[in-house]
From TrEMBL, chain A:
Name assigned to this protein: Actin-related protein 3
Keywords from the named record: Actin-binding, ATP-binding, Cytoplasm, Cytoskeleton, Nucleotide-binding
Chain intervals with Gly residues compositional bias: 182-191
InterPro entries in alphabetical order: Actin (IPR004000), Actin/actin-like_CS (IPR020902), ATPase_NBD (IPR043129)
Phylogenetic lineage: Eukaryota, Fungi, Dikarya, Ascomycota, Pezizomycotina
GO process terms (BP): actin cortical patch organization; Arp2/3 complex-mediated actin nucleation
GO molecular function, one term: actin binding
TrEMBL record, chain B:
Keyword terms of this UniProt record: Actin-binding, Cytoplasm, Cytoskeleton
GO-annotated cellular components: Arp2/3 protein complex
Protein family (similarity comment): Belongs to the ARPC2 family.
GO BP term (any one): Arp2/3 complex-mediated actin nucleation
MF (Gene Ontology): actin filament binding; structural constituent of cytoskeleton
Subunit structure as annotated in this protein's UniProt entry: Component of the Arp2/3 complex.
Renumbered residue ranges of the record's region Disordered: 269-293
Species, as recorded: Xylaria flabelliformis
Signal peptide (from-to): none
Known function: Functions as actin-binding component of the Arp2/3 complex which is involved in regulation of actin polymerization and together with an activating nucleation-promoting factor (NPF) mediates the formation of branched actin networks.
Cellular localisation: Cytoplasm, Cytoskeleton
Lineage, highest ranks first: Eukaryota, Fungi, Dikarya, Ascomycota, Pezizomycotina
Protein name: Arp2/3 complex 34 kDa subunit
A Pfam family assignment: P34-Arc
Amino acid sequence: MDLWLRDEGLPVETLRVYMASAFPTSSSPTFEPAEQRTNRSLLHRQAFSGHLLYLPTYVSAPPFTRSLTVAVPATTGVKTHDQPNITTVVVVVVVVVSPHLTRPPSPCTYNSDRLGVAVLLLGLLPPSPPLSPSPRHGQPDPRRCHGQLSVHYSGTGFSKLGFAGNDSPSFVFPTAIATKGPTGGSGGTGSGRPSVANKPSFLTGGAGPSGHLSMKRGTEDLDFFIGDEAIAASNGPGYGLHYPIRHGQVDNWDHMERFWSNSIFKYLRVEPEDHHFLLTEPPLNPPENRENTAEIFFESFNCAGLYIAVQAVLALAASWTSTKVTDRSLTGTVIDSGDGVTHVIPVAEGYVIGSSIKSIPIAGRDITYFVQSLLRDRGEPDSSLKTAQEIKEEYCYVSPDIVKEFTRFDRDRSRFLKHVVSHPGGRQVTVDVGYERFLAPEIFFNPEIYSSDFLTPLPVVVDGVIQQSPIDVRRGLYKNIVLSGGSTLYKDFGRRLQRDIKHLVDDRIRASEVRSGGARSGGLEVQVITHKRQRHGPWFGGSLLGQTPEFKSYCHTKAEYQEYGPSIVRRFALLGGPGGS
Amino acid sequence: MLLLDYQNVLIQSVLTERFSGAPPAHIDQTVSDFDGVTFHISTPETKTQILVSLQIRCFKELVQYGAEDVLHREYGQYVVPAETGYDFSVLVDLENLPADKEERDELIKKISLLKRNAMAAPFEHAYAEYYKLKEAASKYTSEEAPQGVREGGEVMAIHYRDEEAIYVKASHDRVTVIFSTIFREETDRVFGKVFIQEFVDARRRAIQNAPQVLFRNDPPLELQGVPGVKETTGGEIGYVTFANARRNFPHPDFQGLFSLSHQSIKVLRRARPENEEKERKTASGRTFKVQGA
């Protein structure tokens, strides 16, 4: 079910309120002017009963005020996935536009008098008849579908396998598979090597890159390696390296199936029919991928039970180990920074607020490159990527203020360190470690020192994400900002982030207090949670939830799969949510 | 990768990392292996003492057939009283490792083979008995052999899963190993049968020295009168019998068998699309359909 609303961005003189109701009986949506009302309890209670909601952007100030500070994108939308128990969607739009408005509303903050406001409230009425094809409201805007809603890298290529109850994954290896024959044609392989010359098919037994399985006579499709062994094998002759997951999406299901089969039988050494599996997916994973996954796990592996969880939700669960967390809620903002990309994902009561997700093209790899460029500028004897990475992991930290940190370094020479690189063959080289100790992670907070095209600091992005989320969960989102992934492990990263976000929030509160003429705000709690399991946050969250006694009852079983078909995995009861542990 | 390794990869990788001189770290991992085996690798007291514990469903039966002796022979000085909830434990002190790198690798290998060594006891027992019986039988012709020698030793049952078991029996001319396997679903049963039939036929076709294999749905004669073996099974349970006179596979690789059956089902599936390929092209590019095929 897709519902899309477009703000024309035209000057409108009066305040207008629209209500669009998509009733299952009517084939097209009806429009009726209604009172300006915000049925917030309805929103809160039922908005998240669906699987995945793209909640709209709306006003950031309290309702019913004529002077508003708003962040309004040119297009706002509401989208829900097919949900059997959602039959009606009501959307209320309030548009206030000054006649003198010259530019269309765009995602930035305007002042109150001359502005465009779009208020959208979404309420989901209780289920009545079964789902009917829902009407479309306005035109879907593909740009918003794919542009702003980010693409998630599944850990940028690492798989983490292990058993529930353990505190770290048993195996962490690249999601790579080496098969007989040259590398597949699906894009770069990362190895950068020319692939082995293609033999005529009668010599390879028909094991070409695109050969159909039925064309193969021998056991070529059983001859493959995964993980680190795959990388090693691809350096020798005869094997081509493939990455079955690209951009967080499964690219080659045949490779993925073989990757899983080897993971289960060779590494985990379990009989799938005796075990329940908890898999993770990135936010906004298409449900079709879940179905394919279920098909493989139930039909090829015959597994006892399957649960597919969203990584961000598991990262929230992992933060429960922190002493700062008291109430084990599944509402919070997850900052997931791995090697390739950083995501800011708001989660409300266990469901991802898809429309507010933002990704930042700055992550671990960029920090490594930045350290490397600093080393090169200084002309250090060794400025390889490996050395840069070691320096990054060993010496870097986040400083509260870079200007002061510079003077502190100049005053106290002991802050400059030496890093010893041992080359194979016993030669040792000493590399100086200087300002990059605090400058490297600083690119999160002042990206202009590294990048020329992405300039928004991480705290501003986080604040923006929360401001774009529904107003009634924002307090929870500010209170529970959870770090996850290897690039959030710098010392004092959480503290700096918390301070910067707090400044932004306090400034805004002060500004609205001034505008309101004397009203006092009770303040807003901003808390960034740092915990010991950050590196493998989602994995640890899964381990935590997977060992609970009720986990198995949340899984879908083989019998259920056979009864309903693959579409059963589109829905899972919320693990660790209300009613859970 | 057709065949799986005998050893547990995780134990191997953890120990290799620890033995290589990496700084001591706290370990606490519970991992599993095939046949419902659970391992627990931990550093309970200090970070330099690694405890590896094994829990196996049929340990009592294995002890009965001499598992303790085999394990003590293999692990000797490393054996410690079993950790609570587990059946067998070995403790390695990182500060007290063999100096030689090869010996260290040998130790890693040995510990990662913990499960195989535990399961080996009944087979070793059976082979010892086989040699004894063979010697005894050589004194008689088959007609006049006394009772005990003609019938061979006791059937040793290892209930390594809830419903499946391995039976080992030594006689004067062979050692018989019987696996009972369960295929609940009709299709699995067909696949299983086709696959196991391959085992049976392999001897006939190419591999002359392969052990003799029989596959049947009712208990073989060797198992008559063994407690817990049902007389009629309704086809769900199959019995795979290996009879082997030479000692060329003293530790049968059960996982190999099972993974092979998983893999081979996939190979069998390849047969299917071939039949569906009905469209053919002529040299000039015209297509035609095979009538009625």
